[in-house]
Write a structure and sequence with these properties.
Elements (H helix, E strand, L loop, with lengths): L2 H26 L10 E6 L2 E4 L5 H20 L12 E2 L8 H13 L3 E2 H21 L3 H5 L2 H14 L1 H4 L23 H10 L1 E5 L8 H14 L6 H10 L1 H7 L25 H10 L1 E5 L3 H4 L1 H15 L3
Parallel strand pairs: 3-4
Antiparallel strand pairs: 1-2, 5-6
Helix pairs in contact: 1-2, 4-14, 6-14, 8-14, 9-10, 9-12
Organism: Idiomarina xiamenensis 10-D-4
Protein name: Cbb3-type cytochrome c oxidase subunit
Cofactor: heme c
Amino acid sequence: MSSFWSAWVIVLTLGLLVAIIVLLRWNMKNYTDVAEGEEMGHEFDGIVEINNPLPKWWTYLFWICIVWGFVYLALYPGLGNFQGLLGWKSSNQDVRSLAESRAAEKRAEEEGLIVEYDRQMRAAEAEYGPIFAAYAARSIEDLAADPEAVAVGQRLFLQNCSQCHGSNAMGGPGFPNLTDDDWLHGGSPAKIKETIIGGRQGAMPAFGEQFTDQQITEVATYVLSLSGRKVDPELAAAGKTRFAVCSACHGVDGKGNQDIGSANLTDNIWLYGGSQAKVEETLRYGRNGVMPAWKDILGEDKVHVVAAYIYSLSNEQ
């Protein structure tokens, strides 16, 4: 924060503590002519006010809390830009990427700073690392048949993958359903793990400038016919002649190619929607999907367990 706001926080915080001290001292002294233990002359509904001091145990607690407040502010961050005498902080602030986070972690370690998040991560790795290493030594098929390993993989999936694929892994518009055994890049254990580790980037080019609106409708109609839809035969026939442009990726039969991640157009499973309007939209504007790489985020051992969970969803044991 700026120097102004840092000074503002320091003055406000310390001023408040001083005000509390003054208030406590004022309440501990008798500023009236009435002796302690005597009536103050006020009565309400039969209740008489008596000039009694604050209980000693109560004032001691107040003083302890005030002293602890000063000690805490001296040891830990809290007074503007002052970082505290212990060099402790909850996490490395202002990092915007994994690379920046790791650089900050290394820098904090070299400078002897105490970063709680880094400590917790190292402690977790020391405790759970051997467990995941043991899982990684087993095959994905073996783990997929192990309820305990599947439960661990599910928890990792919910924490990292469910934001896109849903908590039930059934996906949504633009995000693949992982339970239906329909795979753009292959559903074998090795391919699933490869996808998670390295990520995927799919690109469907736009044909809005190459085809007229009528031609887009014709190609979309033919594409829908490949999955057994009832369509206008004349439009489908006209679209078939232009499908040659699409066959370079999807194949002459429209069954796609897992080597390049092109979709199978004959199975009636649609990533972005299978209505006439949605297929035309895809043809006209293209699609660009990105599956992030998780190798550097989760590490290969955890990816191995997540892959086993995903494999189990479409391959019931």
